[in-house]
Design brief:
Plug_dom; TonB_box_CS; Maltoporin, Chain A; about 5% helix; membrane
Length: about 625
């Protein structure tokens, strides 16, 4: 796909697209004013009362995505790009508003996940079938979530129990010998709420690499993912609830390393668990205590010999005390937390370390007629990189008739990973956190049948950690605080209904630039878009999706170009009975050849069919 490349052409395209967006289909969602969002303020809030730029991906959208991964669903949202080294089971990166994949906080039911060595969440290990909805909050949220929330926060919610018992299940199959099976039950009985589900998915996949790639092997590289998760809560007394939750996922994914004599693969285990108690201490005061643990265990097996195996395990423990106090129409939040990170490495002793961070934060939200205000501040103190202070403030105004304007500023930071601090011949213990300073403004319109969301942002990053030569006090290169970057862009999303067809659309213009070198940040396009149209005829629903991306570069030097691409996906569902439905999906219908990472394979035309059962 060829996007305009000059500033004049981009400006003209931007102006015309604002008008066209009302009749453009898209997979990205604008928010209904009554949608309740949790992540943006760490408490339930109506979308109409939010200043932060937010997207919610609902259960029906996740269900019709077919077999694949969470990253496949996210890739179709505004402001999000992905990179992947092969099939849905391969190592995956998610870029939010052009920010690095390690500059995005990822939560599973409020539990922070990710590797302390790479700083990236195990996207390939998250089971898609367990998810009820996903909330994406764009922009810096370090005042609420601490380190790494430069590009934003993505929170994944699994199903929770409420009301009469509901039984769900699905069985599916598709291209590349893909097989998928999951089942679950959730509901409530008096004071008890419960939810439990399990799933299994596997695929023979395709070759992870292309001819000419280092380690190329033309064999198929498949994956197998098994998972189980559950949530249980009990209302001890009016206003007081205690609960527990867990998620376990184990992934076995093949990849290429040049060996045809051994089944080269990774084994990744993702585990989260949490217990909490929440109580209404007064008419206007709710207090919540939570202890959470997440484990990210990655083993790589390159040969049958013991020397061909390596293991890196990350454990995160976090204790959080959150107090939410209503002051008339205003809300005050006070937060205290302690997070401990621990890494054990079988092959690199220097990485087997730990660090702790103590945090204190306050946030204030106010409403005065048509005016919305919020402000927040946070202090983080790490045992490794010292103290960091962050702050944010926002303002919104309701003009009436569904039109609202917002503006905000905020600071953020990313903590150096254990690799950037301690990996032999690469890390430097003196590395400092990266710093971000963001400005943004938005315009939102919701007239029921027509919705529009337009946002401009500029995030300036300093002390960026990159692989730099020369390296202070060392021969060769190393991870070092040397660069500055600018993440600037404009996003527009819209939806409407025309002649019985629901149309949605989003377009992103962005300039993710390394200001030290003047080059485009790797694997991020300057323009990308997503569109969707669907309609229903009785019990049958059908739709089409179009994903578009401009050219990118695979390297920081901008020498290796990744071409732009367009992907057309088609789907239909048939509701046989109230409980039983059939999903048919055709991805990459035009069989487009493209790359998300240089010399790594991507899927051609594929199909998937699933029979679903849901008693709700």
């Amino acid at each position: 796909m060829n996007f305009p490349v000059t500033r004049q052409a981009a400006a003209y395209s931007l102006a015309t697209s604002l008008a066209l967006a009302f009749v453009s289909p898209s997979f990205a969602q604008t928010l209904d004013a009554d949608t309740v969002v949790v992540t943006a303020k760490r408490m339930p809030q109506r979308a109409a009362d939010l200043i932060a730029d937010t997207t919610v991906i609902h259960a029906d959208e996740i269900a019709r995505s077919g077999a694949g991964s969470v990253a496949d669903v996210l890739q179709r949202q505004r402001g999000i790009e992905i990179s992947r080294n092969g099939s849905a089971g391969a190592s995956t990166s998610v870029f939010l508003r052009g920010a690095n994949s390690n500059a995005v906080v990822v939560l599973l039911d409020g539990v922070r996940i990710g590797s302390a060595t790479s700083g990236v969440a195990a996207w390939n290990a998250i089971p898609l079938g367990a998810i009820e909805r996903i909330e994406v909050v764009y922009g810096p949220l370090s005042t609420l979530y601490g380190a790494d929330a430069i590009g934003g926060v993505i929170q994944i919610f699994t199903r929770k129990g409420d009301g009469a018992p509901v039984v769900t299940g699905s069985a599916g199959a598709g291209s590349n010998a893909t097989r998928q099976l999951d089942a679950g039950v959730h509901g409530s009985a008096d004071a008890l709420r419960y939810a439990l589900s399990a799933g299994h998915e596997e695929s023979d996949g395709f070759s992870a690499t292309r001819p000419g790639a280092f380690g190329f092997n033309p064999d198929e590289d498949g994956y197998r993912r098994r998972s189980a998760n559950g949530r249980l809560s009990y209302t001890v007394a009016p206003g007081t609830e205690v609960g527990a939750q867990f998620l376990h996922s184990d992934l076995r994914a093949q990849y290429d390393s040049g060996s045809a004599a051994y089944d080269v693969h990774n084994k990744q285990d993702l585990d989260t668990a949490a217990v909490y108690a929440s109580s209404q201490l007064g008419a206007n005061w709710r207090s919540t205590l939570q202890y959470a643990r997440s484990n990210d265990k990655l083993g790589s097996f390159t040969s049958a010999a013991a020397s061909g195996a390596s293991q890196i395990d990350t454990r995160q423990d976090e204790f959080t005390w959150q107090n939410t106090i209503a002051l008339g129409l205003d809300t005050l939040q006070l937060l205290a937390s302690r997070r401990e990170e621990d890494v054990e490495s079988s092959s690199t002793a220097d990485l087997s370390r730990s660090r702790s961070t103590n945090s204190y934060a306050a946030a204030y939200s106010a409403t005065r007629g048509s005016h919305l205000f919020d402000a927040s501040a946070r202090h983080d103190r790490s045992s490794v990189y010292g103290s960091k202070n962050t702050g944010a403030a926002g303002y919104g105004y309701h003009f009436g008739n569904g039109l609202r304007a917002t503006a905000s500023v905020g600071t953020s930071f990313r903590a150096p990973t254990f690799n950037e601090l301690y990996f032999p011949n690469y890390g430097l213990p003196s590395n400092r956190p990266e710093k971000g300073r963001n400005q943004e403004a938005g315009l939102r319109y919701d007239a029921g049948s027509v919705q529009l969301d337009a946002t401009w942002y500029r995030n300036r990053l300093t002390d960026m950690i990159v692989s730099s030569t020369p390296c202070p006090g060392r021969v060769g290169s190393c991870a070092y605080n040397v660069n500055e970057a600018k993440l600037e862009g404009f996003t527009v999303a819209a939806q409407t209904r025309l002649a019985g067809i629901k149309l949605r659309g989003s377009l992103d213009w962005q300039d993710p630039t390394d200001e030290t070198t003047g080059r485009q940040l790797a694997r991020r396009a300057k323009k990308h878009a997503s569109f969707q149209a669907d309609s229903s005829w009785g019990q049958v629903k059908a739709g089409a999706e179009l994903q578009l991306s401009g050219e990118r570069f695979d390297d920081a030097a901008n020498r290796n170009r990744l071409g732009g691409y367009g992907l057309l996906n088609l789907y239909t569902s048939w509701q046989f009975t109230r409980e039983v439905s059939l999903l048919l999906r055709l991805n990459n219908a035009a069989d487009k050849q493209y790359e998300l990472a240089r010399n790594y394979g991507t899927s051609g035309r594929t199909w998937f069919a699933a029979l679903r059962y849901d008693t709700r």
